Amino acid sequence: MKSVKTIHGGNKIIAGSVISSTVLLSFIFSSVFFNNEPSIDKEAFAAISPYIASGTTRVMTFISFLGKHSFLIPANLLLILVFMLLKKKWMAVRVVLISLSSLGLMSLLKNLLKRQRPPDPLIEGITNFSFPSGHAFMSMAFYGLLIWFTIVSSKNKWQKNSIIIFLSALILAISFSRIYLRVHYATDVVAGLLIGFLWLIACLFIIQKIESRFINKS
User: Fold this and answer.
1) CA–CA separation, 101 vs 57, rounded Å?
2) DSSP state at residue 182
3) Residue 1: is its pLDDT beyond 60?
4) What does the buried/exposed string (b/e) look like for 135-158 if buried means 16 or more CB atoms within 10 Å of the residue's CB?
5) What ranges make up the beta strands (E) of 32-166?
6) Contact assessment for residue 108 and residue 178, using Cβ atoms and an 8 Å cutoff
7) pLDDT higher for 156 or 185?
8) Which residues contact 201 (CB under 8 A, 6 or more apart)?
9) Interatomic CA distance for residues 10 and 76, integer angstroms
10) CA–CA dist 184, 178 (Å, integer)
């Protein structure tokens, strides 16, 4: 009975998070594309501006790298290899499908919406569009999947909570670094996190259904 209550409670939390995320994402989308540019974007840059320094910029550039494709592609491949070696085939399938579909959705949204980047970035080499933040989106997809795996597999409560807190802080740090470096507006970043979360939940739900069907047939 306790496990049933725990599962039911977890489902209610997920459902509430999905609804809240959808409402907030709708508000951000409306503010960015149908109303005037949201004031939060200017206010975020203004709040960060006094703290910009060369040393901090180097730290933020490194943190940002942890959400970049040149880091996440090898990280995803390594994770797939680890799960295959551990004979966790369906976890490897999750990594493949979530990473590829997230990349495709992110690219599609950027090219459909075509929001221009903020002026005066602190780093060079940024060429694609701004909305949503790819770093926030892909970090949520990759590190969020690791959080999910930790929740369902770790039996040590202290270890589980430590990993979840660390990965959650890393997602937020990567996301914040994009605003600090002036390569994304705050609304780009929040939208990236929300879309990444919603897409991750949808993918996990669909893959779980597919896995259950395969197991029942075998």
Assistant:
1) 31
2) T
3) no
4) bbbbbbbbbbbbbbbbeeeeeeee
5) none
6) no
7) 185
8) 14, 17, 18
9) 27
10) 6
